[in-house]
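Entry 14. Structure prediction run on the chain below.
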Amino acid sequence: MSSVQRLDQELSGLALKILGRRVSKDLRTRMRQLPSRLRGGGLAATYAFVLSKADPNPAKELGYAYHQLAVKIAEHVCHRRLLGGNGTVLPPKRFLEALSSATPAQYARACAEVDALATWLSRLADALHEPAPPANTTGGTDGADSDPNTVEGDHG
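Output returned:
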């Protein structure tokens, strides 16, 4: 059996690693905005935005997703040597510096690859988002109707 993957398979798997198995309303919204943010502002500006929102604390779902996004983009682009280099993964802030010194051809290849990843993130965020159940109108709950995949504060 071959271990060769199509690029879209690789990117869909990477998107799943970034998002996890459950996507809140806020995370879905942010991931749906990512492709247009990339196309409108460019990769360097979007990556700087992602870094500004990143938080390595897994308890902070949205910040952690941005953290994972920053790390995984840098890993992916570096492994594929889209910015030149020897395949060594750069930490996110060094990756941002590398974007600023890339040749136009390197930058364009990295942009195209990250744009394809952003499209997968948007699609998967929609697919993995599970809306919260409607509020119980009887005034109380026995827990039978609660959704174990819904995080407090996720209303939608």
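The domain at 8-128 is CATH 1.10.520.30 (Peroxidase; domain 1).
Filed with the rest of this week's runs.
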